Amino acid sequence: MTDSTQRIKYAFLKIITGSSLSRRRIPFMSAESAKPGPVLWLTGCVHGDEVGGMVIIQEIFKKIRKTPLSSGTLCAFPLMNPIGFESASRNITMSKEDLNRSFPGNSSGSLAERMAAIIFSAIVKTGPSLVLDLHNDWMKSIPYTLIDPNPGTTGLQAHDRTMEISKKTGFITVRDTEEIRSALSYNLIQQGIPALTIELGESLVVNEKNVEYGVKSILNILSFLKMIEPPGQDFSHPLSARFRGEVLEFSDKPVSSTSGVIRFLARPGDLVMKGQPVARIYNSFGKLQETISSPGEAVVLGHSDSSVAFPGAPVMSFANLTGRP
């Protein structure tokens, strides 16, 4: 669709040809303003069971069609892993690979690496100002913004810009403590492209409240980049006001050291103190096996999707508060 202010495009990128000669494709969406400006990418469903991001992208484009961009270009891959999506699987079903552990990709590599190479090259060649990778987390979890660890010299400028923009999402900002070198966001930052992940609650189903949060968060970013006018309302998740400007540290420790059934004592969004009991594990006779306590002052991000505990299994995730007096 073309009008005097912007051009809307829907297309596909081919990923593989099946044994029946059918084509498997990745949908692509873009809205290009008549006025030059930033290039913002939205990506969703890199994990096939994380469907919320796809719906958020659809809703953003509905809004853009009604109220065109004032400048710049918005691009999106709403469904990066259609094979996993169709089987409600996190991974690419046929090869059992995690697409978000396959970047920057390899055009001669495994199936996931080939798909990653197609996606990565398509994004990079547009010279993005920012990439927002939309994910879903555990079923019982709160929305939050996740940024990669500081990469050092390589990608430092892009990381600093990512940090700045993360505080405009309206969610609490959490720094990952694990350097996932084969993730989309990590590789984009290494290429000098600011990129962050937004975790938006439960996977497998569309949670309409989290879709609403996600849409408002992206409108925040579009407004910050001056891609829409007049500026959208400044969205802020209820929890973010308590930690405005702070960067918290992600943790899924301590893990369980025994087997049994988990009974949670703290809810997602709760602020817990160091040493505070947050979960208890009981055996099949109801005897207490273990009490899990918070490792420090932290916000509970989420509960594990199963109440089955076994040695070494994560039970809860936290955003640890650091640097507070």
Distance between the termini: 55 Å
Radius of gyration: 20 Å
Structural class: alpha/beta
State which percent range the strand residues make up.
25-35%
Largest sheet: 13 strands, mixed
Care to count the β-strands? 17
Task: Write the element-wise H/E pattern from the N-terminal end onward.
Answer: EEEHEHHEEEHEHEHEEEEEEEE
Summed up, the helix count is: 6
The helix fraction, in percent, is 10-25%
Shape field:
globular
**Unreliable residue runs:** none
Q: What do the pLDDT scores average to?
A: 93
What's the SSE blueprint?
Layout: E1 6-17, E2 23-33, E3 39-44, H1 52-66, E4 73-77, H2 82-86, H3 111-124, E5 130-137, E6 140-141, E7 144-147, H4 156-166, E8 173-175, H5 184-190, E9 195-202, H6 208-224, E10 247-251, E11 260-264, E12 271-272, E13 277-282, E14 288-293, E15 298-303, E16 308-309, E17 316-320
Parallel strand pairs: 3-4, 3-5, 5-9, 7-8, 8-10
Antiparallel strand pairs: 1-2, 2-4, 6-15, 7-9, 10-17, 11-13, 11-16, 12-15, 13-14, 15-17
Helix pairs in contact: 1-6
Textual characterization of the structure:
With 325 residues, this protein is α/β, with parallel strands linked by helices. The chain contains 6 helices and 17 strands. The strands form 2 sheets. Strands 1, 2, 3, 4, 5, 6, 7, 8, 9, 10, 12, 15 and 17 form a 13-stranded mixed sheet that branches. The protein has a 4-stranded antiparallel sheet with strand order 14-13-11-16, with no helix packed on it. Helix 4 links the parallel strand 7 (144-147) and strand 8. It is globular. The mean pLDDT is 93.
Task: Summarize this structure briefly.
By secondary structure, this protein is α/β, with parallel strands linked by helices. It has helices at residues 52-66, 82-86, 111-124, 156-166, 184-190, 208-224, and strands at residues 6-17, 23-33, 39-44, 73-77, 130-137, 140-141, 144-147, 173-175, 195-202, 247-251, 260-264, 271-272, 277-282, 288-293, 298-303, 308-309, 316-320.
